[in-house]
Design a protein that fits this description.
By secondary structure, this protein is α+β, with helices and mostly antiparallel strands. The chain is built from eight helices and seven strands. Among the domains are: 78 residues, Arc Repressor Mutant, subunit A, CATH 1.10.10; 94 residues, Glutaredoxin (3-Layer(aba) Sandwich). Helix content is 32%, strand content 8%. The N terminus is likely disordered. Its cofactor is [2Fe-2S] cluster.
């Protein structure tokens, strides 16, 4: 870090302090285990950033220095990566990172109202932490759980189908130290504990693995439709092929609809599928 400057003040910046010897030794041992999983040591940077985050709750200059030294990178290279990804925090924050999805579907289903209510309830704004250091509130982007909108994430665990009242109760429980259960997935743990799991050290608590759930019924609707289990009907095959052999026929007594529910999304005939297409059939040479 020698020669680094604080660009805001134009002043030389002091080198980042090192960890205390005991902490350094422990982190080095963990880091070696992580690095050994990769053919190229620098590939371990992302888990190592989680590892140093598990120590202090955010990526400090000391953590950046540690990663740089152990991976033989520059602190500028490590900083560039750690500031790119939103899962690395750059300032002290709460034990529980409460993210309210305010992307389009969650927003219209109540996410915007939940975020506003939590700001008022907790007395903090976006990316701010309650005075007791328990909860940090933030907007988050879509977490691909739109079918359970509006979604709140706590330390990356899902709390589906939230309301203003349930979200307020959730943060109250977190601040009071009461146990809360995510809708699915592993049991909730603190941000530091979560960071250690993300670094590649599995949650050893009894039941942690067994508790991991899969996709819920709403997530499986598309799959069931595709299999004909929810709305059996004609399978629209792309490129004019015949129905697949495993197409699910209508159940006895059920009337097959004229078209598949999603037939309006079926591919249109193209030069590749329609010999009479004005562009003519696609040939090997033409591709
Ligand atoms: S819009 Fe919120 S999870 Fe997708």
């Amino acid at each position: 870090m020698s020669g680094a400057h604080d660009v805001r003040l134009g002043m030389p910046q002091l080198p980042a302090p090192d960890y205390p010897a005991e902490v350094r030794a422990r982190l080095e041992s963990d880091a070696k285990e992580v690095i050994a999983r990769y053919p190229d040591s620098r590939s371990a940077l992302l888990p190592l950033l989680h590892l140093v985050q598990s120590e202090e709750g955010h990526v400090t200059r000391t953590g950046v220095r540690f990663c740089a030294e152990i991976l033989e990178l520059t602190t500028a290279e490590v900083t560039a990566v750690s500031t790119f990804y939103s899962m690395y925090r750059r300032k002290p924050s709460g034990d529980y990172q409460v993210g309210v999805c305010t992307n389009t579907l969650c927003a219209v289903m109540g996410g915007d109202a939940i975020f506003e209510a939590l700001q008022e309830h907790l007395g903090v704004g976006n990316n701010e932490t309650t005075d007791d250091g328990k909860v940090s509130l933030e907007h988050i982007e879509c977490n691909a759980a739109c079918d359970f909108a509006p979604v709140v994430m706590v330390n990356w665990e899902f709390f589906d189908g939230q309301t203003v009242e349930s979200a307020k109760a959730l943060v109250d429980d977190l601040r009071a130290g009461r146990t809360v259960e995510p809708t699915r997935g592993a049991p909730l743990c603190t941000y530091k504990e979560t960071a250690r799991i993300l670094a590649g050290f599995p949650d050893q608590r009894p039941g942690a693995v067994a508790a991991s759930g899969g996709a819920g019924p709403a997530s499986l609707v598309g799959l069931k439709l595709a299999k004909g289990e929810l709305a059996p009907g004609r399978i629209v095959s792309p490129r004019g092929e015949s129905e697949p052999a495993d197409a699910v026929p209508p159940r006895p007594g059920e009337q097959a609809p004229e078209t598949h529910p999603s037939s309006h999304d079926a591919p249109r005939p193209t030069a590749a599928s329609d010999p009479s297409h004005p562009s003519g059939p696609v040939t090997e040479e033409g591709e």
